[in-house]
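Sequence only, no structure available. Ideas?
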Amino acid sequence: MSRLHFASALLPSGWANDVQVVVTAGAIAAVTPGVAPAAGDERHAIALPGLASLHSHAFQRGMAGLAELRGDSTDTFWTWRETMYRFALAMTPDDVAAVATLLYVEMLEQGFTRVGEFHYLHHDRDGSPYADIAETAARIAQAAEASGIALTLLPSFYAHGSFGGAAPHAGQRRFICSVDQFAELMAASRKAIANLPGANIGIAPHSLRAVAPDELTAIIPLAEGGPVHIHAAEQVKEVEDCLAWSGRRPVQWLLEHAPVDQRWCLIHATHMTTEEVTAFAKTGAVAGLCPITEASLGDGIFAAREFLDAGGLFGVGTDSNVLIGAADELRQLEYGQRLKHRQRNVLSRGAGRSTGRTLFDDALAGGARALAQPTEGLAPGARADIVTLDAAHPSLAGRTHDAVIDGWIFAAGGGAVDCVWAGGNKVVEGGRHRLRQTARERFNAAVRGLVA
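Reply:
I predicted one. Tokens follow.
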């Protein structure tokens, strides 16, 4: 058991002062506001619950910044994808582990305490399954265990190169499974995370262009009640190709043909009609937004104001992991809306409301639902995932309560996270993860070989 005391903490009921939190066996056992620190309490200034990165492709952290050279034609998501394929085809399981470990260290240093790993780099470099079909999933689990981050593993089913059951691209060979292979992969992946504290599992049909309707129907039961994540309507070309195939847009097709409910998370959903926005919001499914990646890839801007006005719920993810930061994703989300609508404080949803606090609360709730967490925030029964901010940071100085979150998201630019507890273990102190140096050395060695 450990006792933590915070001068100020954001609880599910709102901000409270002089809060003692008791942690037992990795979970929060008690939260008591309005008490003076007791002997033996570890004292800190400002506490927040950790956020979830609900959508991550860990291996892509290794190629961050390597696709910024313009080609002969207009660069798009589709040209970026070719660079990604080349990088993915070169990685060994050891490379996967090294890259994922540093990524998860960086996530924790930036305020993410759980990751939804949308994992599709399954097979060996020639496309043949490893002897253990979940070899790379096990490496993801090892990276999560080493770093301390909570893992929601989302093995991805990928069978086709485009809509209508098109043959897969040669660059996709490490991703491809039959339905029977995927069932085997799911069983092995469950074993890989069985002893990992805080871990759970769902499934991730990659997208409608990669999964045929009968395959989607066949694999959904493999989630066994867990979360179901799918890419949808990220690119205009994807929407056009889906219309040509089915006469329906991707989100429209899913809402008409799949059992979309609160277990589901539609990743990106960037290009929707007004009718799709409203219908999606009513399902209770989460919009998995990845604002930095969506900006990096030129995807477009999600209809966030309209979706929230319709009662929708969102969470944020780091996706391609080109830049890691909970505050960065939330800031980019709001700034995209400001550019779109030419207004300020677009997503605050009410006069006098803090934009940062509103974004934080929404992302906390959406991430918890998308990754199937029954208890969220600093509350008894929740996993002890706690983030403290540095009250001496220049962008937080003199601020209290919601103004602290506004300062962190919109002004700090880094260095504001002080300590992080993951499952009750302090893994970050003074802004530095305990494994930062060794994780960087392993990552650098792996990426030097891959780049060469």
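The two ends are 48 Å apart (CA to CA).
Hope that gets you unstuck.
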